[in-house]
Amino acid sequence: MTKTITFNKLREIKDRLPEGSMQRIAEDLQLEVETVRNYFGGTNFDEGQCTGIHVEQGPYGGIVGLDDTTILDHAISILKD
């Protein structure tokens, strides 16, 4: 499922996550932790995978198109716990 979100909103979600959440998401979804970080705007592609995010410059950090919302959905579920 494709979703559009502002880059600032994506970073806000990441910043609200409790410490250790990147590792938890990676373990739960069987991904490299750097892949999860890349999803939230990181650029370490030597260690992690590309995550299917597409950034278009603009207000509020630009618009991000997410090809797959699995990581975002998992992050949001952590925030609701």
What does this 3D model show about the protein?
The radius of gyration is 12 Å and the shape is globular. Helix 1 packs across helix 4 (70-80). By secondary structure, the protein is an alpha+beta fold. The model has no long low-confidence stretch (mean pLDDT 87). Helix content is 46%, strand content 15%.
Mind sketching the topology for me?
Blueprint: E1 3-6, H1 7-16, H2 21-29, H3 33-39, E2 53-56, E3 63-66, H4 70-80
Helix pairs in contact: 1-4, 2-3
Poorly predicted segments: none
The span between the termini is: 23 Å
Portion of residues in helices? 40-55%
Number of strands: 3
The ordered H/E elements are EHHHEEH
Determine the number of helices (DSSP H or I, runs of at least 4 residues).
Answer: 4
Note the beta-strand portion.
5-15%
Rg calc: 12 Å
What sort of overall outline do the alpha carbons produce when their principal axes are compared? globular
Key structural traits:
globular; 81 residues; alpha+beta; 15% strand
Brief account:
Helices cover 46% and strands 15% of the residues.
